[in-house]
């Protein structure tokens, strides 16, 4: 089954892509949306301009569009592709999933969201077990301070997030915008993405990182 993948550069869209490939979907292209609105409810924003490095690391062609949150605008994008399915990384956001589903239905496309409704702790643990290397590139929730910016998600950091989930009821996967991520490596990457430096930007209650000096590192094959 031929598909395109809605790809933001974050952990969820990347893991959904990984699962789709394991399920036999033939990924024709990555479709990345650069949201017109500063506070988009549909699309990932931090590090979106750096997704081209990930696309090269995957060796999958990428198209980038700048649109708003309107389903009509997404439909104008997706109608250009002669595929069978659209892969997305929605987990718990009905706002996001219902809009993608509606657009896909109107175009007679399968909307495939393999992470939908899954236990969020299990998903994060599965990503780590699979060998995903994930960087936090923005935080915007009580309890998530500047120290989280640029951190790599590991079991120690996951424990901190679980504690914040218990204390402040944050969404563990960041589905409410609590934090956003950038994937540096995954099992299907042909080469690793290396961020040699970054600049944190903090305004007192939320912040993000500007990624600098991005390079590729070859992956040894057995």
For the terminal residues, how far apart are their CA atoms? 30 Å
What structural category characterises the helix and strand content?
alpha/beta
- What proportion of the residues is helical, as a percent range? 25-40%
The CATH class assignment of the largest domain is Alpha Beta
SSE string, helices as H and strands as E: EHEHEHEHEHEHEEE
Q: Please indicate the percent range of residues in DSSP E strands (runs of 2 or more).
A: 25-35%
* Backbone shape: globular
Count of DSSP H/I helices:
6
Please characterize this protein's 3D structure:
This protein has 222 residues and is an alpha/beta fold. The chain folds into two domains: 2-112, 3-Layer(aba) Sandwich (Rossmann fold); 132-218, putative n-type atp pyrophosphatase, domain 2. The chain has helices spanning 11-22, 51-58, 71-78, 94-106, 120-130, 155-168, and strands at 2-6, 26-35, 62-67, 85-87, 110-112, 133-139, 179-185, 191-202, 207-218. The strands form two sheets. A five-stranded parallel beta sheet has the order 3-2-1-4-5, with helices on both faces. The longest helix has 14 residues, at 155-168. It is globular. It starts with a strand and ends with a strand.
Q: What are the SSEs and their pairings?
A:
Elements: E1 2-6, H1 11-22, E2 26-35, H2 51-58, E3 62-67, H3 71-78, E4 85-87, H4 94-106, E5 110-112, H5 120-130, E6 133-139, H6 155-168, E7 179-185, E8 191-202, E9 207-218
Parallel strand pairs: 1-2, 1-4, 2-3, 4-5
Antiparallel strand pairs: 6-7, 6-9, 8-9
Helix pairs in contact: 3-4
């Amino acid at each position: 089954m031929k598909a395109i993948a809605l790809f933001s550069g974050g952990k969820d869209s990347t893991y959904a892509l990984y699962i789709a490939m394991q399920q036999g979907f033939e990924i024709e292209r990555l479709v990345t949306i650069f949201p017109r609105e500063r506070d988009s409810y549909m699309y990932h924003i931090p590090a979106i301009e750096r997704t081209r490095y990930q696309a090269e690391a995957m060796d999958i062609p990428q198209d980038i569009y700048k649109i708003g949150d309107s389903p009509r605008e997404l439909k104008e994008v997706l109608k250009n592709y002669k595929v069978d399915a659209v892969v997305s990384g929605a987990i718990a956001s009905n706002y996001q999933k219902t809009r993608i589903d509606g657009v896909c239905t109107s175009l007679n496309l399968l909307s495939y969201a393999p992470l939908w409704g899954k236990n969020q702790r299990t998903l994060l643990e599965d990503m780590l077990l699979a060998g995903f290397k994930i960087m936090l590139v923005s935080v915007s929730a009580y309890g998530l301070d500047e120290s989280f910016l640029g951190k790599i998600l590991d079991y120690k950091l996951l424990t901190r997030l679980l504690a914040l989930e218990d204390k402040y009821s944050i969404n563990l996967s960041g589905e409410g915008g609590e934090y956003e991520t950038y994937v540096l490596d995954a099992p299907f990457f042909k080469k690793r993405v290396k961020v040699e430096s970054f600049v944190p930007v903090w305004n007192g209650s939320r912040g993000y990182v500007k990624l600098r000096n991005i390079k590729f590192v070859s992956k040894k094959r057995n």
